[in-house]
TrEMBL record:
Belongs to the ferredoxin--NADP reductase type 1 family. NADP(+) binds at H153, G154, N155, V156, R197, R198, E209, G389. It comes from the Eukaryota. Its EC number is 1.18.1.6. GO terms for cellular component: mitochondrion. It catalyses: 2 reduced [adrenodoxin] + NADP(+) + H(+) = 2 oxidized [adrenodoxin] + NADPH. This is NADPH:adrenodoxin oxidoreductase, mitochondrial. Its cofactor is FAD. It is an enzyme of class 1 (oxidoreductase). Residues 8-168 form the FAD/NAD(P)-binding domain. Pathway: Steroid metabolism; cholesterol metabolism. Keywords: Electron transport, FAD, Flavoprotein, Mitochondrion, NADP, Oxidoreductase, Transit peptide, Transport.
């Protein structure tokens, strides 16, 4: 009978959402078997290819993913892209349920003239380049210029700015890729602008990232005092943790400690936090290179039941910070630079054209992880809820999804398929797939290569190289 049959669940994507969902499923039902299908030959998604190389502590989650992966009821099929190597339909035909957790593989565009110039890069690709994503290994990064502009006020924007300004003798001790280190060593960049369309109360980066920027060696922080004017009067009304972040911005702009001020005077590099600017055009030099970005200057309005009223900073309340909109003024301004990094957000893509997908938000349509009108299909993580937030948020999402699937198994909504169906499918992809023990070989080889040069690991950046080690 079905109650004795084993539920087999396929997870699409081996990032945090996939591993946390697997953990919950394995814990909640002693019979469940979980198969993780991953496009790349290596697991862990953005923990490997997103999280900054100088944040090794964040990557400790890999230890708990490895625990999950070593459970004998959990299988990893790397190097298998769903939608290309196997179809979503064949997974649905062969498994009790399919959980989509394939992240966000694209990024938002600005849609302005000049965006296609050669040194205008997406932060997503730039991050992939220094973190060893095989897709980004040939990104043409030109750091033979003095200034860079990073567009966006989130943690990814701050990550890329920090990598541009961190001395390479510090980066050398991380798992940053060797090919990017070579280019960073020759970098002439002295100045990085981090530009956002709204004000200091709407930034999306967090205090840890700001603190790291302020403490960068040989680098001064410039936040213009008029930009933070009046913030001291409302700071006590701002809910934490934004209050502490705002305090730090205010202090850095207006009253840095004497030691800090002294260090900043001597610094040869600088970063500037720029507010209330929306890019309208990327300008070209006569030689066809990036010459700068033209911005329109914004002011902030609170949107109140459809009507817009100017912000009165004395009346700012924590709960209306998020609803303040940037509206353009008549002023324009150009900032010169030779590199532009666009960091205005990631975007998920529909895996299959049958999938109910919200094109506007770039997410799969679902209710409590249950994909609309598709009984055996679930989704979680960034592909379900949008590319925002940290691993902890992805973890709660994925645990919830795991519970929903377990509930639907318990209440009989999901029925186990014949075991041979899953076995046949696995037999089809077996030769191409990289297993978790294959990954452990790649891991070992990367760590050994890293040890030779004083790094935690030297990542392989080429799929063929990964495969040849996996198969050795
Ligand atoms: P992902 O991590 O993107 O995993 C999705 C996986 O699916 C990938 O491995 C992908 O290869 C695979 N996949 C895609 N398509 C297919 C397909 N068709 N078939 C099979 N597999 C497929 N959070 C923190 O807590 N701390 C940080 O310091 C931090 N830094 C970050 C830095 C950057 C640059 C970015 C972008 C994010 C950062 N985050 C950080 C957030 C964190 O990475 C995310 O919360 C988390 O990775 C989302 O997990 P996910 O599994 O939904 O997506």
């Amino acid at each position: 009978t079905f109650s004795q049959a084993k539920p087999h669940i396929a997870l699409v994507g081996g990032g945090p959402a996939g591993y946390y969902a697997a953990q919950q499923l394995l814990k909640g039902n002693p019979h469940i078997v979980v198969d993780i299908y991953e496009k790349l030959p290596v697991p862990f998604g953005l923990v490997r290819f997103g999280v900054a190389p100088d944040h090794p502590e964040v990557k400790n989650v890999i230890n708990s993913f490895t625990q999950t992966a070593l459970n004998e009821r959990c299988h990893f099929f790397g190097n298998i892209e769903v939608g290309k190597d196997i179809s979503l339909k064949s997974l649905r035909d062969s498994y009790t349920a399919v959980v989509l957790c394939y992240g966000a593989a694209d990024d938002k565009m600005l849609g302005i003239p000049g965006e296609n110039l050669s040194n205008v890069l997406s932060a997503r690709s730039f991050v992939g380049w220094y973190n060893g994503n095989p897709d980004d290994k040939n990104l043409p990064v030109d750091l033979d210029c003095e200034s860079a502009i990073v567009l966006g006020h989130g943690n990814v924007a701050v990550d890329v700015a920090r990598i541009l300004l961190t001395p390479t003798n510090i980066l050398e001790k991380t798992d940053i890729t060797e090919h990017s280190l070579e280019i960073l060593r020759k970098s002439r960049i002295q100045k990085v602008y981090i530009v956002g369309r709204r004000g200091p109360l709407q930034v999306a980066f967090t205090i840890k990232e700001l603190r790291e920027m302020i403490n960068l060696p040989n680098t001064r922080t410039i936040i213009q005092p008029p930009d933070v004017e009046g913030l001291d009067k409302i700071i006590q009304d701002i809910p934490r943790p934004r209050r502490r972040l705002t305090e730090l911005m205010f202090k850095s702009a207006v009253a840095p400690s004497p030691e800090m001020a002294q260090l900043w005077v001597q610094a040869s590099r600088e970063w500037r936090l720029v507010f209330l600017r929306s890019p309208v055009e990327i300008c070209q030099t006569a030689g066809g290179k990036v010459g700068g970005v033209k911005f329109i200057v914004n002011k902030l309005h609170v949107s109140d039941q459809g009507s817009c009223s100017p912000v009165n900073s004395n009346k700012l309340q924590g709960d209306n910070l998020e609803t303040q909109k940037a509206v353009p003024t008549d002023s324009v301004e150009t900032i010169n630079c030779g590199l532009v990094l666009r960091s205005i957000g990631y975007r998920s893509l529909p895996l299959d054209n049958m999938l109910p997908f919200d094109e506007n938000k770039g997410v799969i349509q679902h209710q409590q992880s249950r994909v609309h009108n598709n009984k055996d299909l679930y989704c979680t993580g960034w592909s379900a809820n949008g590319p925002v937030g940290v691993i902890l948020g992805t973890m709660s999402d994925a645990f919830e999804t795991g519970k929903v699937v377990l509930e639907d198994i318990e209440n009989g909504t999901l029925l186990c398929k014949e075991r041979s169906k899953r076995e046949n499918l696995v037999a089809q992809i077996k030769d191409k797939a990289v297993t978790f023990s294959d990954w452990l070989k790649i891991d070992k080889s990367e760590c050994a290569a890293g040890e030779l040069v004083g790094k935690p690991r030297e990542k392989l950046i080429d799929v063929q190289q990964m495969l040849s080690i996996a198969r050795s």
